[in-house]
Amino acid sequence: MLAMELRKLLDVLEGIAPTSYAESWDNVGLLAGDPDQQINKAIVTIDYTHAVAQEACSLGADLVISYHPPIFDAIKRLTAPSLVFEAIRKGMAIYSPHTALDVAPGGTNDVLAEILGITDPAPLREIAPAPWHYKLITFVPHEHVDRVAEALFEAGAGWIGNYSHCSFRNEGTGTFLGHEGTNPTVGRPGELERAPETRIETIVPARNLSAVVAALHRSHPYEEPAFDIIQLTRAPEGRGMGRIGAIEPIDRDALIEKIKRELGVDRLLVAGPTEGLARSAACCAGACGSMLNDALARKVDVMLTGEVRHHDALKAAAAGMTLICALHSNSERVTLTRYARKIAAASGIEVVVSRQDRDPFSIA
């Protein structure tokens, strides 16, 4: 097998599950390690436990890819015998994809959707697009339009894709009345002025906003130029947490047995009816939380997750939903084999799935 610089392997991992997909509260990406170190072998696990740490050492792994981040809250001290300290001392890097993998195509929730047989799965809860660019709108006397626009473009405004100098312009009339102490470019203080002006609209990347506003002030002929700044977001991309959709009609008890086989578990926690046909389903790996309400609002017949609260299970059962809980990490572990294969195929390094990783709970 090949070796790869960790820095380059991070690009591979980012391509499979972009960290920008992760929830804002999450802690994903490289948690420990030197981006310049060479990686020969990686081990993939849900949780980085003592048993997994010993397994990683015995296999000669250089990188642990732990779905759940072993560093989550802020750390003020890092000392022996903590697992992270020992990993750093041994030169073993740690990476976590967590909710980024939940959202990513082919990731945790897509695997559960396949098990349920959801056709054309959609996010159970779509992610709101993050702020992207700003729109700058200003009003300029006709004869100064080109000078002001060029100053804005030089400062970084007006790029859409591979096109520069992008703007929209229309003409109108501006009004203003200068009071005591003003020195208007057009007209005189104390008199209402009507000036022919051009409205300029252009787009500004967030990183260039300060420079563009400064350029506007420098180039605009007015003592107090009027302008608006509007925050923009990207168009919705259909990404989000959980999955939902129609399934081929199937008896609920038969679907429960199928889930057991696919997840490799002997028991499931089930609330609600176990008989009757199911025609729609939803899933959410790990702890479902408030997204159960999303599924209930859309009246799905079956929902598969890791764990829910007692009162949420009562709510689902009362609504006639079959709520299936596999235990937290049992709803996530099935994804690891596919994830490991993707990493190995894209990087050429050896990637193994932990044999010591398991849910801390069992049903006796």
Structure in words:
The protein has a six-stranded mixed beta sheet with strand order 7-12-14-15-16-13. A five-stranded mixed beta sheet has the order 2-6-5-4-17, sandwiched between helices. The chain has a four-stranded antiparallel beta sheet with strand order 9-10-8-11, covered by helices on one side. Strand 5, helix 3 (83-89) and strand 6 (93-96) form a beta-alpha-beta unit. The protein has twelve helices and 17 strands. The chain has three domains: 4-98 and 335-353, 3-Layer(aba) Sandwich (Udp-n-acetylmuramoylalanyl-d-glutamate--2,6- Diaminopimelate Ligase, Chain: A, domain 1); 108-127 and 240-332, 3-Layer(aba) Sandwich (Udp-n-acetylmuramoylalanyl-d-glutamate--2,6- Diaminopimelate Ligase, Chain: A, domain 1); 131-233, Alpha-Beta Plaits (2-Layer Sandwich), CATH 3.30.70.120. Helices cover 29% and strands 31% of the residues. It has helices at 6-16, 50-59, 83-89, 99-103, 108-116, 145-154, 209-219, 252-263, 291-297, 310-318, 330-333, 336-347; strands spanning 4-5, 29-32, 38-39, 41-45, 63-66, 93-96, 118-126, 131-141, 168-177, 192-205, 227-233, 240-251, 269-271, 277-287, 302-307, 322-325, 350-353. Helix 1 (6-16) packs across helix 12 and helix 6 runs antiparallel to helix 7. The protein is an alpha/beta fold and 364 residues long.
